[in-house]
Amino acid sequence: MEIPAQYIKNLYKTLLVFLVVLSLFFAVKFLAELKSYGRMGNSETNTITLSGHGEVTAVPDIANVYFTIRKTAKTGKEAQTSVAVIEKKALDFLETKGVDEKDIKTENASVYPKYDYVRKLCPQTEIGGVVSPAYDCGGKQVLSGYEASESITVKIRNTDDAGTIMQGLGTTGVSNLSGPNFSIDDEDALKAEARKKAIDNAKEKAKVLAEDLGVSLGRIADFSEEGNYYPIMYGKTAMMDSAVSSVLAPAELPKGENTISSDITITYEIK
């Protein structure tokens, strides 16, 4: 069956129109992309960059206390046993103060040998009535015992009890004690609030600057953030070791405030 010439002619026309439309589509898309690239590449004249700062303050709701138990003995097992005795006293005391087991964390535990250097003196000689000085003829390290230690962090959720708890821990025989470090248990909400304030601050600056320049703000081309956390803690950290355990932390400790801040930078395209 022979295809009519007019049908073939119309088919070619339709195909030609389709190809022209398709070519125009890609040409327009290419020019739009090229134009966009040109705007982004010329940040000095087509973009403005503003910074914003935001911060929030809050009273700390937890206090962290740190202590170490350190004991020496002839054997490693004896040293560990001595540490365990003191640890039990400390943990029993914390339990009486309502500190949850999940808020007590062992940060580090170790046992290692201790050595003393024993000198071996060379025989002295006398020449012409002059006695030679004593020299070390090769001393050696001699095992003197073992030291066991354990470091523990305690999170105190009732911050008003921080001073009392430190006083009690100081009587259990811990080797040293430091803190409290007042902080905020869940900072995410405060960080988000500080970030929003920083963004609002930058937006307001951008709006004013755009009006002054006589331009319009376009889309956001870039964004970055730097967050900072400034704890305002008790000014004098209470610290003690076994030799000065009678110097106890005060029962009431001022908590002050903690400041969480956010610094952001926003780059706008301008039109």
UniProtKB/TrEMBL annotation:
Gene3D superfamilies: Protein of unknown function (DUF541), domain 1 (3.30.110.170), Protein of unknown function (DUF541), domain 2 (3.30.70.2970). It comes from Candidatus Nomurabacteria bacterium RIFCSPHIGHO2_01_FULL_39_10. One of its GO terms (biological process) is DNA damage response. The chain crosses the membrane at residues 12-32. Keywords: Membrane, Transmembrane, Transmembrane helix. Pfam families: SIMPL. This is SIMPL domain-containing protein. InterPro entries: 26kDa_periplasmic_antigen, SIMPL/DUF541. It comes from the Bacteria. The lineage of its organism: Bacteria, Candidatus Nomuraibacteriota.
